[in-house]
Design brief:
Blueprint (H helix, E strand, L loop, with lengths): L3 H9 L8 H48 L3 H13 L15 H8 L15 E3 L2 E3 L2 H13 L2
Antiparallel strand pairs: 1-2
Bound molecules: zinc ion.
Length: 147
């Protein structure tokens, strides 16, 4: 690993370099590696951004189809086609595979804390999560009663 403080000190010392040729070669190799890694990360970011963009456009198209095109079923077909291509249709036999809200709660990128009943949540207050308004009210009642 290059000692960046040493390199910076050498650069500031102008005519009195205190860095060896081996260190310069190591530094240039590290800069090349970092540049290559940066390019790879930018390409990955571009790919992910384009996939997200296309998914948003497909959902927008689904709504347009529903409201101004061939109706609800045709609108849903946009979403089915978008998910089927990469093999992302939900497994209806998986946990929460028959409940859209619980499915979303369980599989979103940053799930809330689980509800006291064990279900994944979509309502969060402080550090607690709730799967329904009813369970949020029940917990609030219990919390108030225990104080
Ligand atoms: Zn619950």
């Amino acid at each position: 690993m290059i000692d960046l403080d040493k390199l910076e000190t050498a650069a500031r010392a102008a005519n009195q370099p205190s860095i060896s040729n081996a260190e310069i070669l190591e530094l240039t190799a590290e800069v090349r590696r970092l540049r290559k890694d940066t390019v790879r990360r930018l390409e990955l970011t571009k790919t992910i951004s384009e996939a997200l963009h296309d998914n948003i456009v497909a959902m927008q198209s689904a709504i347009i189809e529903w409201q101004h095109g061939r109706g609800t079923e045709a609108g849903l077909q946009w979403i089915v086609n978008t998910l089927m291509g990469p093999g992302q249709l939900p497994d209806f036999d998986a946990p929460y595979g028959k409940n859209a809200q619980l499915w979303f709660n369980e599989h979103q990128a940053h799930p809330f804390p689980r509800c006291f009943c064990g279900n994944p949540s979509h309502i969060a207050t402080d550090s607690r999560g709730y799967c329904s308004e009813e369970h949020a009210r029940q917990d609030a009642t219990r919390t108030t009663a225990s104080q």
